[in-house]
Design goal:
Layout: H1 4-29, H2 34-67, H3 74-100, H4 104-132
Helix pairs in contact: 1-2, 1-4, 2-3, 3-4
Length: about 140
């Protein structure tokens, strides 16, 4: 399994790079002011960082236990990214609605825009991260 230090590096780098890309896009696409988008995006990032760490630790544990490996296939990477974003959606939708003083439906539209960005970003970030920092080998599961 990856170490806690490695997972922290993974999660923090993911969010820092994501924020650098996402804040300007959010301001432009949703016609928000930086003072609206910046704190919201930072708050979402803090939630996402915590979720990223917990989610990836859990996925690593499940993969090591049931598959005997941490290396993901392309299909597993798709499910990994979608599972992460679905969990994050449940946590962030009420915050977006409250922060922007919009309905849950309007917040869902904003969140779906962020999800499209982050699903693609997560897929390619995790692929690149695994190339730069290859996952350690694990022992096959005992049967």
């Amino acid at each position: 399994m990856r170490t806690t230090r490695d997972r922290l590096r993974h999660a923090i780098a993911f969010e820092v790079i994501g924020l650098a890309l996402c804040i300007p896009l959010t301001v432009r696409v949703f016609d928000l002011q930086v003072l609206e988008a910046g704190p919201l995006t930072l708050g979402l990032s803090l939630i996402a960082t915590s979720w990223n760490f917990a989610y990836n630790k859990a996925v690593d544990a499940l993969m090591a236990r049931h598959l005997g490996r941490l290396e993901k296939t392309w299909a597993e990477r798709v499910w990994h990214a979608l599972g992460f974003e679905l969990g994050l959606l449940v946590m962030t939708l009420p915050l977006i609605a409250w922060w922007l003083s919009v309905s849950l439906l309007d917040a869902l539209i904003v969140d779906l825009g962020l999800i499209v960005f982050y699903v693609l970003y997560a897929f390619f970030y995790n692929w690149a991260y695994d190339r730069v920092f290859p996952p350690p080998a694990v022992k096959p599961p005992h049967r």
